[in-house]
Amino acid sequence: MTNMQSEDKRPTPDPAEDNAFFPSPYSLSQFTSSKSDLSGADYPAPYTGGRWKVLMIGADERYLLTDNGTMFSTGNHPVETLLPMYHLDKAGFSFDVATLSGNPVKFEFWAMPSEDEEVKGLFAKYRDQFKKPLKLADVVEKALGDDSDYIGVFIPGGHGALIGLPESEDMKSALEWAAENDKFIISLCHGPAAFLAVGDNSSFTGYKICAFPDDLDAQTPGMGYMPGHLTWKFGEKLKAIGFDIINTDISGATHQDRKMLTGDSPLAGNALGKLSASALLEEVARE
Fold first, then answer.
1. pLDDT tens-digit profile of 180-233?
2. Using CA atoms, how far apart are residues 170 and 220, in angstroms rounded to an integer?
3. Element containing residue 65 per DSSP (H, E)
4. Which of 12, 25, 39, 87 maximizes the CB count within 10 A of its CB?
5. Could you tell me whether strands 63-65 and 53-57 are parallel, antiparallel, or unpaired per DSSP bridges?
6. Which string of b and e fits 62-76 if b means at least 16 CB within 10 Å?
């Protein structure tokens, strides 16, 4: 996708589904680019122990119903998924990919930086896992004990994170396992909507995070990014259960509160990757 200017703010029909739409040409020209800002993924002393992995929990549903009956064709945002993964991969950490259903991870492929060979290469490396992920319930049952090989959980953004994850008991179990076992939780943009799965668990009360602002979500239909408005506000709901969202705009901000690492938008993908890689390397260096 190029970043050439377009004035067309009409959402683009998705021919694969009734009354479903991709972002408008104008939105794509403003918010996607053929090259990401990937940089700084130089880790001269990467992790070589071979044990520690990150559990990536992806979106398995593409269509998000909006307030006017249209559907937004969404999934996980490639930049928000692949840039953090790229840094962690370069730092020596591998991934297991899971979805709630075990069905393939859905991507907002219209946001793929098509001329970014490093990012596309990382996608290719994990493509088979994206297509045939683990079922999260099986991971919870078999791989999240006291002796788990996961050093953390990564929940990428994209509006696909709003579908299913916030209500999932398996998502709740994974997050509670991470908190109880002093593991990392990494997320950005709309990914923190998954944190709603924990309900009013006091272990998460007071965490300061970055996330995509509700106010900006309300503005995006005006430029045709979404074909309608969201039916609920995930930031408002996160605040209601005790999370403190510290950003009001999107600037590429990241934040670390204990072992919860978050970013505000696709603009934060590279910075969150660097923050996460450094934090995990520092952790394993203590072993």
1. 999 999 999 999 999 999 999 999 999 999 999 999 999 999 999 999 999 999
2. 31
3. strand 63-65
4. 87
5. unpaired
6. bbbebeeebbbbbbb
Please report where in the chains the tokens 């909006």 appear, as a residue. Answer: 66
What pLDDT digit, counting tens, does each position of 202-215 carry? 999 999 999 999 99
Q: If DSSP codes are grouped into helix, strand and coil, which group holds residue 49?
A: coil
Mean pLDDT of 3-26: 91
Determine the pLDDT at residue 2: 43
**CB-based contact 250:216 (threshold 8 Å):** yes
CA distance 248 to 246: 7
Q: Which of 90, 116, 133, 163 is nearest to 266 (CA)?
A: 116
80 close to 266: Cβ distance less than 8 angstroms? yes
Average pLDDT rounded to a whole number, residues 112-123: 96
pLDDT at residue 48, rounded to an integer? 97
Give the separation between CA 249 and CA 137, rounded to whole angstroms: 35
pLDDT of residue 1: 38
Active site residues: 189
Own/partner contacts of 280-283, CB < 8 Å, gap of 24 or more, are 280/47, 280/52, 280/54, 280/88, 280/91, 280/93, 280/151, 280/152, 280/184, 281/43, 281/45, 281/46, 281/47, 281/91, 281/92, 283/151, 283/184
Residue with structure tokens 């950490």? 93
**Given its phi and psi angles, is residue 40 left (phi above 0), alpha (psi -120 to 50 degrees) or beta?**
left
Note the helical H segments in 147-268: 169-180, 214-219, 234-240
